[in-house]
């Protein structure tokens, strides 16, 4: 069981918006303002798409946005496109400088 | 533009030591934290540890720290990973990545390691 909980899968049709949640599941793994999100296509290395909860690195589409409320961070993808179909992972630092990942969410574009 | 390239044996025997290198090009190794992350087939990402580019400050995952050693060779711009006493459960894609406040912003392409006799 991962320290950060994500839904195993989400799906949406082209043009729609979807949201993937990431929740710290123990008191020791609180979601700090260091949450980042990664997109991973099959056979490829993960790619940073959101840093520091809601910041988009250079070159990342503004269709990707991040937010945080309490102990849950969220990634929203608007205007879904076929190329968005991938696995998505959240990551956070913890109070003890240990790093943790979520279990990953498979996004299917219908 | 910073690029990372992992290298090392693809096949390691059980109980032996897995040794990988990550070569950093296009940027300074000394100014950043460098991390190893692995991903078993079909599974999620697992953070192994990180080291400061100027060495030797390290932080390891509690689940692996008894078997892990990371080091930096600034003259070669390399970050190394040693994982002792491997088992088939250590079979995975191993990535090196640059760690900043915002997360892992640069990744290598990864290298597959299979633990088998």
Structure, described:
The complex is a heterodimer of chains A (110) and B (117). With 110 residues, chain A is an all-beta fold. Helix content of chain A is 0%, strand content 45%. Chain A is built from no helices and 10 strands. In chain A, the strands form 2 sheets. In chain A, strands 2, 4, 5, 8, 9 and 10 form a 6-stranded mixed β-sheet that branches. Chain A has a 4-stranded antiparallel β-sheet with strand order 1-3-7-6, with no helix packed on it. The radius of gyration of chain A is 13 Å and the shape is globular. Chain B is mostly beta strands and 117 residues long. Chain B is built from no helices and 11 strands. In chain B, the strands form 2 sheets. In chain B, strands 2, 4, 5, 6, 9, 10 and 11 form a 7-stranded mixed β-sheet that branches. Chain B is globular.
- Backbone structural class of chain A: mainly beta
SSE ordering of chain A: EEEEEEEEEE
Number of DSSP strand runs of chain A: 10
Helical amount among residues of chain A, as a percent range?
under 10%
